[in-house]
Amino acid sequence: MAIILAITAAVTKIARGGRRRSATDPTCKMPPPPPVVNSIALLRLLPTLFRSGLPAILHELYTKFGSVFTINLAGLLKMTFLVGPEVSAHFFQGLESEISHGNLLEFTVPMFGKEIAHGVDSATRNEQARFFVDALKPARLRIHVDPMVQEVEDYFAKWGQHGTVDLRRELEQLLLLISGRCLLGKEVMGTMFDEVCNLFRDIEGGVNLMSVFFPYTPLIPSNRRRDMARKRLHAIFSDIVRSRKQREGDNVDKDVLQSLIDSRYKADGRATTEA
Known about the structure:
By secondary structure, the chain is α+β, with helices and mostly antiparallel strands. It folds into 2 domains: about 1-105, no CATH class; about 115-260, no CATH class. It is built from 16 helices and 5 strands. It has helices at about 1-5, 15-25, 40-45, 45-50, 55-65, 90-95, 110, 120-135, 140, 145-155, 165-185, 185-190, 195-205, 210-215, 220-245, 255-260, and strands at about 10-15, 35, 70-75, 75-80, 100. The chain has a 5-stranded mixed beta sheet with strand order 2-3-4-1-5. Keywords: Heme, Iron, Metal-binding. This is Os05g0415900 protein. GO terms for molecular function: heme binding; iron ion binding; monooxygenase activity; oxidoreductase activity; oxidoreductase activity, acting on paired donors, with incorporation or reduction of molecular oxygen. It comes from Oryza sativa subsp. japonica (Rice).
């Protein structure tokens, strides 16, 4: 399980740019290509897929082939997996010409929208990543320590002296409370916290094998729930953002949502939008 949690990327595609550079630069020594898992080997893993799911297959392939391996789906699609902390630096810091998601993360566009993440070009996506990094810097998060502690104390104060709980579900609920308090703002915590949590769960439920290959089809029930949840979340946070933009000075909240509202693109100075 620790190995699966350490997967830094489920799927990556080696871009052509890196191969061209090695062909023209004789001083650049390329390592041997990663081992290839062919279709026959994948068929043998089908029982594991149905019995234990995709993480179990990745664990088995990681154990057999190491941190980097390629899956070849009958020659129609080749996917190179980077698994484990030993390859995380290359995944996160590699040049766009050397390592790229290609269109393999297209399934995230219906989840988050066409205006952010993999719905935009890489330059805009990098700027948006900077917004989140700046908003989550330790210096900014320190002001939320007391509210975090308060949420934890209030939550566990409701527990009795003994009993049985679903620890995973309880900790998930606690993390949602902390996130809602420090990230989403008091508007969400005030009247619509339960609704927002359920909407986020519907979006999370939209990540499955069928939605990865068919992200836009409404025939998949989880896709329909995901799309309705995103539409409702868009309406909720659009109202909150518009309301906050009408405030001034000391009336402005200091949470992460406000940091994102105040962010500006370096290229042209434009502000973030409600989308």
